[in-house]
Amino acid sequence: MKMGAVSKPTMQSAPSHPTERGYYPIFQSLDGEGFLPGSGIIFVTVVHEESYKVESQDDQVTKDQVLAVLRSMFGAENVPEPTAFMYPRWSLEPWSYGSYSNWPPGTTLEMHQNLRANVGRLHFAGEATSAQYFGFLHGAWIEGRTVGEKIAGLIKGTIQTEEVRYDPLHGTTFVDEYDLTNGFILQATFATYGLEQM
Does residue 22 carry a pLDDT above 70? Predict the structure, then answer.
């Protein structure tokens, strides 16, 4: 498994009608109803190689690049210097080395389930352990809730099961393995093209 990277350089400016600037698929404003009205906060998302590049440079270089893009879109007179600017550098953090897990092609549910499986009293939860939503915050939330409920059940004595662990691995995932045992919480209809007969 490799870790992926996502960076969101964030800046704050004095409010200047950010919602009237229009929407751009990369920049997002938090200065709106239901978020942080009046904050003047916007962020831009960069991914993969560009994210690694951004995370390896200092704040001033990144801020200058972001401002140059905004000013080319809206004009220099409409984009003031930010009053604050920051972003995390997840790919450089020794405890994470990335923003989210990025399962490579060929990863089977068995391999994934082995990552989820508890080791004695030690249980694991996070976006990387979510079979359906790895890489996303709601995957971490769902897994945390699921493992918390499991631990509560073990403490109360209402459940006695351990997570399934596969040894040996079979190298493929069959349609009927997309189930709760393997961490797949939603049942989906798959186009099997007759392979279920095999």
Answer: no
